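Lecture 7 notes: from sequence to structure.
We start with the chain below.
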Amino acid sequence: MRRCIKCKGEPAIDLKSNNTAFCKEHFIEYFLRQVARAIKKYNMFSSDERILVAVSGGKDSMALWDALLSLGYNADGLHVDLGIGEYSTGSRRICENFAASRGARLYILSLEDMYGTNMREIVRRTRRVSCSVCGTVKRYLMNLVVQQKGYRVVATGHNLDDETAALLGNLFGWQEGYLARQYPHLPSTHARLPAKVKPLVRLGELETETYCRLKGIDFLADDCPLARGATSLAYKELINSLEEKMPGTKQRFLFGFWDRGRRNFTDTPVELKECSLCGQPTTAGTCLFCRLMQKAGLDPLIQPQVQEM
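Predicted structure tokens for the same chain:
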């Protein structure tokens, strides 16, 4: 194995995509530099902005939260407790312990406390794809917290692997609207909606896991039980097989699309109006969240009960 490119010390990670290796100290330095580089390149936010980080307890979101705090940003966490047995219990505990150890602010929303049910039951009642239902519910609740607490930027832990898999899926389906919108920084399109940023896009899952391990950051290694069979996993397997044979494929594919390919796709602007039930921005008469909750037999107008640590 190669030695550290900076000090020739014992390597903690070997990055075939960059044809280099780093020891513990210099990998952490490299990781933070890549996050800072993404923030600057895509003009994600300024040093004095308050950032809300969506944290699940997994390696990516925990690495992101730690990196932003280490870089000196004012980053608070938001965790949505989905009520999925031991998986959710462990996820929440990790987020709470991290916030306590770093003296960071953490907001928690519990589906059980708010609606008296859990995500598995909501998916069963709506008979929709689990990841789609979960994403809709979490985005809606996050937007309510954003409005209530006054944030303008939400950061998520989407990494290089996530983005290349999404790009591959969108290209296979020729999803022109999604292709036009796939970018590390999506500005706000409405006064009630935050800008959304992805500071980990220059780093893959190997890097985020290694960063957590080297810094002693606890994370939940288990995949969400509701995500089994998701098409994104198949796209990741495909792109990973190409990366193994041709290191650097992910970076060339994704960054090449953002630098040159994305301009060939246009997203038709749509007029946002108020949902007939909750009043939140939507493209339809009634927003998808309200329709889903009604189908599940739940009250969509319940206001979020935010617990703050």
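Points to note: The longest helix spans residues 130-149. DSSP finds twelve helices and eleven strands in the chain.
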